[in-house]
């Protein structure tokens, strides 16, 4: 049997691994292991045209993009129980104010009627007039008490949630009900201590652990900070359509700031993960693909902006990268398991 020779050279720092890795479907893969365990393996895969088409491998040239610089902040999905309790108490307080107003109006009218009758020496007695006056005074006190209760609740909302959310809590508008119906979630975004971004952007990117990135919309500044972060904090909302978020979840937040930076766009679907390391496959020739580490610390809507490690001449696999990674892992162990029985036979 003809022997396939596959070599992966990464310079003097790499240990050369040479073996015949015959793979069904016209593919073979090779690993060049770095002398540094941190660097990990460089992975190359060779596939003929038919195998590439069968696996759905598609590569595309890199596209230059520009994006604002970003600061990494900290986010948390807030529980809205306190907000709901405040709204419930506030609604009851408003109802009590309105009820007290109605009672006072009635007692005032009755007092005026009895006072008029008494002054004209008609059927009203002094005792009835005094009772009416007492009732009017009591209703006035009740109204002031109800108003004070309402003001206290409004003040509590202002202290805990800030003016924007407190105002929306008092009116019970669409913003409030989207939160209560869990169509939106409320986030607390905290900048690192000592950092100030003014004004905060209308939109930031959030990333739950192990999940896709989402866009969050600015609401207002928070009057409180996260006690664990001790940085300036802000409220943002995010839609629940993705189904990725849960109350209490901690998030990575990317906040645009300063002048934009240029780089290449790496699509999310092009990125695969190997032992916690994000990789993309770069097409180095006809049917030849090499995995390359990619930085994911500058996310954009479609993927990631990278500023180093790539050039305009590179073609990156945008469809089928996972198939290439699987082929690389499948090929080497299968050959290793077969032993060295092939020797140098032709």
Can you walk me through this structure?
With 346 residues, this protein is an alpha+beta fold. The chain folds into three domains: 14-67 and 264-337, conserved putative lor/sdh protein from methanococcus maripaludis s2 fold (Beta Barrel), CATH 2.40.420; 71-78 and 183-260, Elongation Factor Tu (Ef-tu), domain 3; 81-180. The chain has five helices and 15 strands. Strands 1, 2, 3, 4, 11, 12, 13 and 15 form an eight-stranded antiparallel β-sheet that branches. Strands 5-6-9-8-7-10 form a six-stranded antiparallel beta barrel. It is rod-shaped, with a radius of gyration of 35 Å. The N and C termini lie close together (5 Å). The model is unreliable at 1-25, 31-40 and 333-341 (pLDDT under 50).
What is the assembly state of the chains in this entry? single chain
Question: How many domains, as an integer?
Answer: 3
Extended strand count: 15
Helix content: 25-40%
Largest sheet: 8 strands, antiparallel
Enumerate the spans where pLDDT stays under 50 for 5 or more consecutive residues: 1-25, 31-40, 333-341
Q: How large is the radius of gyration?
A: 35 Å
Overall pLDDT confidence: 82
* CATH class category label of the largest domain: Mainly Beta
Write a short abstract of this structure.
The protein has 346 residues and is α+β, with helices and mostly antiparallel strands.
Which descriptors would you attach to this protein?
346 residues, alpha+beta, conserved putative lor/sdh protein from methanococcus maripaludis s2 fold, Elongation Factor Tu (Ef-tu), domain 3, eight-stranded antiparallel β-sheet, six-stranded antiparallel beta barrel, rod-shaped
